[in-house]
Every structure is written in structure tokens, then in C-alpha cells.
Amino acid sequence: MAISKKRVFIYVEESKEHNKVQKKSRSKQRAFLRYSSIIVITVAVFGAGWMVGNGKVQVGKYNSVASNSSLPNKLDYSSIDTIYESLKDNFDGQLDEAKLLEGLKSGLAKAAGDPYTEYFNPKAAEDFQAGIDGTFEGIGAQLGKDAENNIIIVSPLAGYPAEKAGLRPKDIIAEIDGTTAYDITISEAVDKIRGQKGTSVKLTIVRDGKPLEFEITRETIDIPSVKTEIKDGIGIMTLSRFGDDTVELARQAANDFRSKNVKGVVLDLRGNPGGYLDGAVSVSSLWLDKDTTVLTERRDNVVIDTFKASGSSPLKGVKTVVLIDEGSASASEIVAGALKDNNAAKLIGQKSFGKGSVQQPVSLKDGGLLKVTIARWFTPSGKNIDKEGISPDEEVKISADNITNNRDPQLDAALLVLKS
Predict the structure, then answer these.
(1) C or N: which end of the chain has fewer Cβ atoms within 10 Å?
(2) For residues 137 and 149, what is the distance between their CA atoms, to the nearest angstrom?
(3) Cβ distance 51 to 127 under 8 Å?
(4) Structural domain tally of the chain?
(5) Does one domain contain both 334 and 206?
(6) Which residues constitute the domain of residue 338?
(7) Consecutive H or E run containing 293
């Protein structure tokens, strides 16, 4: 997922004229793409909101999508009141006002029919921020939804319980602790799977049409966003997410690689679910000339904004391979697409996840959060990768035997290319 560091999934441009007035303001509003979401959401959740609006959901100063322009400014809630009165007068049981209101908010977002448009209650909103900060308690896996609305594993995080237990990208979660996971939201699944360190969760997974049972003990998940090493003169930069510290750490690594005259660079984005959009643009800028297109954003199929490299490209011209897999999503796909389309890197691995939509998180007065899809993003060549992903230039798979024996043929292939 890609989250803009300034807290708005991707900001929306209204018009060239109005943009001159609003651009400075909106630069403070950029958020993420997620994940997930997908969004891609870690079992914790990625992101945060910035807008507070008198307890009402406000999508900022953006033009309405043309397809929604015929909707009324306010909904007629008379039928809702009728249902509420009937429940209050007739329901044989104890009703909870707070839960009724939560249900209304969640249902309104769910009615959009989009897996990435979602309401988070205050607790879930806190978890959302904790995920993007990289520290939480859970099993260590990014969750998303497939085309059939199933909850799926986007990517298990390396070295954490989900991976150790054997979960794989695209595994379908059928049950959580014996309760069906069908037709629940990603945040509901996250809430059920996350939990205190030392406790366990039982998952029923469907893989290749066959059910598999897993019992996984939760741990504290603390993920550094950037790891680096130099191996045989090749700089290896591994990004686990695009968080608050990612850009600065990646820039330091790039400058270090340059000062040590590395022969090439491996940018490892495998299993990276995304994060801040600004981070994706800035990381891409390490390789690209100033004003080179990183991505465009479209709303109602009209280009409304173009994101360009910021300059200061210490790795420009350095032979580079980007590693991607089915767990590389959103902001990761932005970087991979930008470097591929601008001929700055070769992609090796497997096809990426495929999340090409843009979400904006909107903070609510009660501490809740609305994450709403506001646009679609496109690679510099004009391709939207939603549900399709980005295909590598060289496909290299990792087998179960490779994992068991701690072999990494994808990294080996990258090093071979860079040494040749």
C-alpha cells in the first residue's frame, strides 16, 4: 500500500488553475495507497488520518467523482430511523447504542462495494497507525482481499510466526478460530488475528483448493523499514515497508553505496505491502532525474495529477535489479513500475500483487477513521496494475525446497545479472 507521508493516500488535483492555490495545502494531505491495501494491511494495519471534521466524514476539498455527482448532498435517514425505532421497540434482547452506530458507519463504507473503502473504529484506527510505525503484536502477515472478496495472505513477513508456520502469499483465510472469514472486512480479520504476545490463533487456509489448518503463536512484530548490506561489491537494500523513516534511511544507504563504489544495487521489495506514497516517490527519485514521471493519478479516468522525481539521484546510472514477488504491493509496485518504465532497473522474481487504487484516510471526531478509494494510479507508461500486478523481466520462483534449505534463487539471479 502506498501512504502519503502527509496523511492522504494520494491527494487529488481539481484543476490546473485551482491547483496553483491548493498545491501547497494538499502537499500536507498526501496519504497512502494500500494495501492492502489491499490496502494491503499488515496484521496490524497500515496508515493514519489527518482530517478532523465535526464527527462527519469529509473527503477534503476535492471535486466529486462524476459518476457520483447525481447523488444528494445528504442521505434521507428516515428509513434508518424507522428501522432503529422498530428494533428499539421490538427486539427481544439488549441493544447497544454504540454498536448500532458502529454498524451504520461500517455498513455505509461497505456499501461502496470496494474492498479498500473501509471504516475503522477508534481502536482499529490506532492499530492502523501502529502498523505503519512497524511495531505491533500479531503473527506478522499482510492481509488483503482477492477478486472473490476472500480474505487472503498478501505476504508473510520474513522471520515472523506466519512465515515460520508456512503461510504463503495468496493463501485464502477461510476461518479464524473456527469462525468463518467470509464477507468480513480486512480490519475485522486483522482484529481477530492480532492479539497479545504468547497467545495463539487458529487459521483454516485454503491453498490450491485444499483446506489446511494452522495454529500460530503471536509475537511482538518489530520491523525495521530498511536493511542494507554490501555483498561481493553489490549493495543490497531491503525495504520492508514505506514508513516514516524509510526515505531517510534509504537515502543514507544510497549515499553509502555510492561512496563505496558498488558495482550494482539490489532493491529488494519482496513482501513489502507498501506505505506512504511520498516514500515511494522519494525512493524512486534515488535513481531518477528530477522531474521524471514516477506515476500519474486518474479520477474517473481523467489524469488529475502527476508525481515526479524530486532530484538528487545518487544511484542514477548504477546497474540495478529490483526483486518483487506476490507480496510486493501498492507503494512497492509504484517504485518497481517507475524504475522499470524509466529503464532504471531490471525486475526479477514473480508477478507483484496488483493494487492500483488510491485511498485517503479521513480522521473522525470520535477517533475513528474512514479509508476511502479516491483514485487509480498508473505507471509512467500509462498502465494501471490493479488486479494484474507487474510482471518481472525475468521470472524466478522460489520453491518450498528452496525455503526449507534457506536458498534464495531470486537474489542469486539478481547478483548474477549485476556481476555480469
Answers:
(1) C
(2) 25
(3) no
(4) 2
(5) no
(6) 224-356+387-419
(7) strand 293-299
Tell me, yes or no, whether 303 and 395 share the same domain: yes
- In this structure, the answer to whether residues 269 and 332 fall within a common structural domain is yes
pLDDT tens sequence across 206-261? 999 999 999 999 999 887 889 999 999 999 999 988 888 899 999 999 999 999 99
- Return d(Cα 59, Cα 198) in angstroms, integer: 40
Grid coordinates representing 307 are: 508525481
Phi, psi values for residue 89, rounded to 5°: -85, -25
Judge contact between 44 and 142, C-beta under 8 A.
no
Question: Based on the domain organization, do 239 and 330 belong to the same domain?
Answer: yes
Digit-coded pLDDT (tens) for 306-325: 999 998 899 999 999 999 99
| CA-wise closest residue to 32 among 8, 51, 15 | 8
Does any domain span residue 103?
no
Final residue of a structural domain among 201, 221, 241: 221
Give the per-residue pLDDT at 154. 81
For the stretch 79-112, pLDDT in tens is 999 999 999 999 999 999 999 999 999 999 999 9
Lowest-pLDDT range of 49-58, 146-155, 219-228, 400-409: 49-58
- Helical packing angle, 246-259 and 277-285, nearest 10°: 10
Q: Is 100 helix (H, G, I), strand (E, B) or coil?
A: helix
Using only C-alpha atoms, the chain has a radius of gyration, in whole angstroms, of 22
Catalytic (active-site) positions: 330, 341, 355
**Contact at 8 Å (CB) between 336 and 382?**
no
Question: Is there a single domain that holds both residue 290 and residue 163?
Answer: no
Provide the 3-class DSSP secondary structure of residue 198. Answer: coil
Query: What is the Cα–Cα distance from 371 to 153, expressed in whole angstroms?
Result: 20
Tell me: do 180 and 285 sit in the same domain.
no
The mean of the pLDDT values for the chain is 83
